[in-house]
Automatic annotation (TrEMBL):
UniProtKB keywords: Cell membrane, Hydrolase, Membrane, Protease, Transmembrane, Transmembrane helix
Top-rank lineage group of the source organism: Bacteria
Presence of keyword Membrane: yes
Spans traversing the lipid bilayer: 12-33, 69-101, 174-193, 200-222, 242-264, 284-303
GO biological process terms on file: proteolysis
GO MF annotation: an example: peptidase activity
Protein name per its UniProtKB record: Exosortase N
Topology versus the membrane: Multi-pass membrane protein
Compartmental location: Cell membrane
GO CC field: plasma membrane
Main location: membrane
Pfam family, one: Exosortase_EpsH
Classification of source organism: Bacteria, Pseudomonadati, Bacteroidota, Chitinophagia, Chitinophagales
Annotated organism of origin: Chitinophaga ginsengisoli
Length: 453
């Protein structure tokens, strides 16, 4: 009997030594299984992210790791309990991993946190959505610059007509999608030169370098559009992508090499060397915290799965004269008649992604042309021409909550955060530009869709 109890205790003690492995398994299950569909598993981004983490990560080995990431993980886990958004769960899981790393290696610098932010799906989503007005502005700027050279240029939305040749600047083109790539390259350079000169840059200088990198990337995209139009390089060709890569290297990466090196050498502070080294001794408290957190993450994830908004169907939808009204999965209402197709896509909260028409229609095989922002009856909306082989449609979209109509992502998200009624994405499509114009004017003037918002 005594031997049996002794064996159990000895087994528990041996298992206790493996608690870091058990914690890693819990985090791995949440990240790679629970968040598999949320995380962006792009090979280029993963490789650049790993390189950036390698060069930017350093530890103050004389200082013990703090519990700051533990409490951050706890806060986001509680937020996930209240609002089951995968972003909160992902942040909580990553903070838990950082807390465990600091437990063994000492206090970590802030650069790896910035790298993880840049690798996140939220960062890419923000770049793609909130940079959309910049993309349209770049098209206009490129047209004005080309016009200075004496060429006949006309710009309509994302369409540039140069000397009778039409060129479409894809609103989701490769150029600004390289913002994430450029950001990770910039972080890698910062980490590399800090290691080379054994200096560390303040947060202010790091953010300044990243801000300059963003400006360089915008300038690079402007030059890229000019080159593509002047050299008649059409989308879908190899040279179209090669031109984007060349502009990124010449106008972003190369200037960053010299800029980062100069700033790190001149303004970096020497790294203080300490003889004392942090060694993990009493691990009872840290053992408990590092085991409770991943266990809580796993349990909360299993019992509090995000609401499957994509499968929700609205009920009790009122009818509208002249339209066939149908409720579709994803809290979507479709109104259809002989000339119009209207989608009303409800957005549950400010932190949700919306069913952007530029994604949905592209999934149906349509290409976007003449994408532009217009002012209609005092409301700003987006309009575009959809084309699939010989099939041409005209579409418009905006955000509406029954009281306010806007095309601004920032405005509707801010309004909802301040307590406004939730918004919906309204997408109206017609077979002709005249039909679309009449339909949009009537909808916005008479607020005909308010009953569905």
């Amino acid at each position: 009997m005594n031997k049996g109890i002794f064996s159990v205790i000895a087994g528990l003690l041996r298992a206790g030594r493996c608690w870091p492995l058990m914690a890693v398994v819990c985090y791995g299950l949440v990240l790679f299984i629970g968040l598999h569909d949320y995380l962006v598993w792009d090979a280029t981004r993963v490789i650049l992210g790993i390189a950036a983490l390698y060069f930017t990560t350093s530890f103050k080995t004389s200082e013990r790791g703090s519990t700051r990431y533990f409490f951050m993980a706890l806060v986001f886990l509680l937020l996930y309990l209240l609002v089951p958004a995968k972003t909160f769960l992902c942040i909580s899981c990553l903070c838990g991993c950082l807390f465990m790393i600091e437990t063994f290696y000492g206090r970590m610098n802030f650069l790896p946190v910035l790298v993880l932010v840049m690798m996140s799906p939220l960062f890419e989503y923000g770049m793609n959505i909130f940079s959309f007005p910049i993309r349209l502005a770049l098209t206009g700027w490129a047209g004005n610059i080309i016009r200075i050279t004496g060429q006949e240029v006309n710009v309509q939305g994302n369409m540039i007509t140069c000397n009778g040749n039409e060129f479409s600047v894809d609103p989701a083109c490769m150029g600004l999608q390289m913002m994430v790539t450029a950001s990770l390259c910039g972080m890698t350079l910062i980490g590399f030169y800090q290691q080379q000169y054994k200096k560390v840059l303040s947060l202010w200088w790091v953010l300044s370098i990243l801000a300059m990198m963003i400006l360089m990337n915008i300038a690079s995209n402007l030059l890229r559009i000019i080159f593509l139009v002047c050299l008649h390089i059409m989308p879908g060709t190899v040279m179209h992508d090669v031109t984007g890569i060349i502009c990124l290297v010449l106008y972003v990466i190369v200037p960053l090499l010299f800029l980062t090196q100069w700033i790190a050498r001149k303004y970096g502070k020497p790294i203080a060397l300490h003889r004392k080294r942090y060694v993990l001794r009493s691990a009872v408290k840290l053992f408990l915290l590092n085991m409770l957190l991943p266990a809580a993450l796993l349990i909360v994830f299993l019992i509090n799965k995000p609401r499957d908004v994509d499968q929700q169907v609205l009920s009790n939808i009122p009818a509208m004269p002249g339209y066939a009204v149908q409720s579709l999965p994803g809290n979507i209402i479709r109104l259809k008649n002989d000339t119009l197709l209207v989608y009303i896509k409800h957005i549950p909260a400010s932190y949700y992604t919306e069913h952007n028409p530029m994604i949905c229609w592209k999934g149906s095989g349509y290409e976007f042309y003449k994408v532009e922002e217009k002012l209609v009856e005092g409301h700003t909306i987006y309009t575009a021409l959809l084309q699939q082989e010989k099939d041409r449609l005209y579409t418009a979209w905006w955000y509406d909550n029954g009281l306010v109509s806007t095309s601004s992502q920032l405005q509707w998200r801010w309004d909802v955060l301040l307590g406004a009624h939730p918004y919906s994405l309204v997408n109206v499509t017609a077979g002709s530009e005249r039909e679309l114009q009449l339909a949009v004017n009537e909808i916005l003037n008479k607020r005909r869709l308010s009953v569905y918002l």
